[in-house]
Design brief:
With 575 residues, the chain is α+β, with helices and mostly antiparallel strands. Helices cover 49% and strands 13% of the residues.
């Protein structure tokens, strides 16, 4: 048994695991009507899907950090010895799904002494520095080991040392036994699930997990993106926000130029999640209201004549969307690290399914977006928002904005923008936010929103955009909110009057359009230097942001959160 030294004191652990500091998001329970109303075949299928998702979570622990599994085993052993410090540490480990994370105050949380988060997480060698990484890749390219370099720099490989070189191992090969088990569970689910389309997807996904071939992933993703009327939801989520190593190549002009010469594009590594849920028909019907407007939005995107986008004004919209009652969120999609995913638009632009005519699919997480403490919400509004504008704040308006955000991911340049390096995700998330805000007026004119809803969206978004602390540059979702706050403040979208936010409602959308146009220009140009200048020029924590942050800190002490998955826990034990 490998030994570790626990990093957080008992005092700190007691604080961080208390209800005040560790919020809980409750997923479906065994007595939930949504589950009880399912057909028996779908209930049986759900059990297999939960087991599949849990295995994916185990795989992602290894992608996230080399030491996660050993550390968890150590904690379990110490808990058997009645080590109370280990017991509390494991609560945080399970919540953040790993030993290293970040909290809502942007503090780095390391659960073991001497083990910090690495730029390459668990997908690159533990002892590989950025400098050596660049040196080895340069050497391999110069020695014409181009195929191996492509395997190292793609989104689906785990990188290991091979003498003086590196080697990229497809994660299907690296975790073959685990993925075989996932495939088996998906095939069992397909035997009892009542929906033929869903079963076809499960079989395609199972095949993709048995063979290390991106083409099989593409076929599965293409089918998944067509699912609209299925009772159940299952997704293997693949996002590349965590990899801070691959993108560093864009900061090395010589190596960047060398790779461009050989037409090799470094793509950040995917981290994996397993999402299981029950599709909520009523919520899904509400989501679908925006679909008919998407071609018009595509037509109105900045510089629309300079690029191809996923949604075409002239063709059928390849975009499905579902609202889901959550059963399980394992691995990357369920990691609570200062926040948790509200919704996802997948596959991302770097995935091969989009190259063979596939579409995209939005999945919204109902239980994650629910507000559990309305009194605390009112207290927050009283502290930060102009009293006269409280009437425009509506928590459901944040969901409307999120719908716009996820659909905006399908608008704009239909390419991965990998050349933007570490700024790629910040720019893309900023685009999605501004795309959602920029079209509020147009959607109001088209009849999607009422004038009252328009005001609610604008005020709610601006009020919710303030953070409790300045984030780190690695937090793409939070960096973009700081950028927006600075940009909006300088152009008069809001003011801080007597310590509270006053939104100048009619100025917000025109300013969002300006920012959206600037972002799209950067994505089209794929210029790393322009992206860096833009992010650094706007990612500035201002005095007014600090004023609001101090108030938010007083209202909410929460530092992190956890998931409560009672139905999933029960289903995982079924034979």
């Amino acid at each position: 048994m490998r030994k570790f030294k626990l990093n957080l004191s008992m005092e700190e652990l007691k604080k961080r695991t208390s209800k005040t500091y560790l919020v809980t998001k409750k997923f479906l329970t065994p007595d939930a009507p949504e589950y009880l109303e399912l057909a028996e075949g779908d209930k049986k299928a759900l059990s297999h899907l939960v087991k599949a998702a849990n295995i994916i979570g185990e795989i992602n622990l290894q992608l996230d950090c080399h030491d996660n599994l050993d550390f968890r085993s150590f904690l379990k052993d110490e808990i058997k010895k009645d080590n109370k410090q280990a017991k509390l540490t494991k609560i945080l480990f399970d919540a953040q799904k790993g030993m290293n994370a970040i909290d809502t105050m942007s503090n780095k949380i390391n659960l073991a002494k001497g083990i910090k988060e690495l730029p390459g997480k668990g997908v690159y060698p533990k002892d590989l520095s950025v400098k050596e990484f660049h040196q080895i890749i340069t050497k391999m390219v110069n020695e014409n080991k181009l195929d191996e370099v492509k395997r190292i720099l793609n989104q689906r490989s785990v990188v290991e040392r091979n003498g003086e070189y590196l080697v990229g191992i497809d994660y299907i090969d690296k975790f073959r036994k685990d993925f075989q088990k996932v495939a088996e569970e998906l095939e069992k689910a397909a035997e009892t699930s009542t929906d033929e389309d869903f079963n076809e997807y499960l079989i395609l996904q199972a095949k993709a997990l048995r063979t290390a071939d991106p083409a099989f992933d593409a076929f599965a993703d293409k089918k998944w993106a067509t699912l609209q009327d299925t009772p159940l939801e299952f997704t293997i989520t693949r996002e590349n926000y965590e990899d801070e190593m691959t993108g560093t190549i864009m900061e090395n002009p010589e190596l960047k130029s060398l790779l461009e010469k050989h037409k090799i594009t470094p793509t950040p590594k995917d981290f994996l999640g397993g999402r299981v849920g029950i599709v909520n028909k009523k919520g899904t019907e509400a989501l679908m209201a925006i679909k008919k407007y998407l071609p018009e939005l595509a037509k109105n995107m900045p510089y629309a004549d300079e690029y191809e986008q996923n949604i075409s004004p002239d063709q059928d919209t390849k975009q499905t969307m579902v609202d889901v009652d959550m059963v399980q969120a394992a691995g990357d999609v369920g990691s609570y690290r200062g926040g948790i995913t509200l919704a996802e638009n997948l596959p991302n632009d770097d995935k091969p399914s989009l190259q063979i005519g596939g579409g995209r699919r939005n999945v919204y997480h109902r239980q994650i977006r629910f507000i559990s403490d309305m009194k605390k919400l009112q207290k927050r509004l009283g502290a930060i928002l102009d009293k006269d504008q409280h009437k425009y704040y509506l928590d459901e308006a944040d969901h409307w904005f999120t719908i716009g955000h996820e659909n905006a991911h399908s608008l704009g340049p239909k390419k991965g923008c990998e050349k933007l390096g570490k700024y790629r995700n910040i720019i893309e998330e900023n685009k999605a936010d501004m795309g959602s805000l920029a079209f509020v007026d147009l959607l109001t004119e088209l009849g999607m929103y009422t004038e009252e809803q328009r005001k609610q969206i604008i005020v709610t978004v601006i009020a919710d955009n303030f953070l409790k602390s300045k984030p780190t540059l690695s937090q793409a979702h939070r960096v973009r909110t700081v950028m927006q706050n600075k940009y909006f403040a300088e152009r008069g979208a809001y003011e801080i009057i007597d310590g509270k936010i006053h939104v100048n409602i009619d100025k917000v959308v025109p300013i969002a359009k300006e920012m959206l146009a600037e972002i799209i220009r950067i994505q089209i140009d794929e210029d790393f230097d322009k992206a860096e200048k833009y992010v650094k020029g706007n990612f500035i924590w201002t005095k007014n942001m600090e004023i609001i942050a101090k108030k938010l800190q007083k209202v909410s002490k929460a530092l992190n959160g956890k998931l409560e998955t009672k139905l999933a826990d029960k289903l995982a034990k079924q034979k």
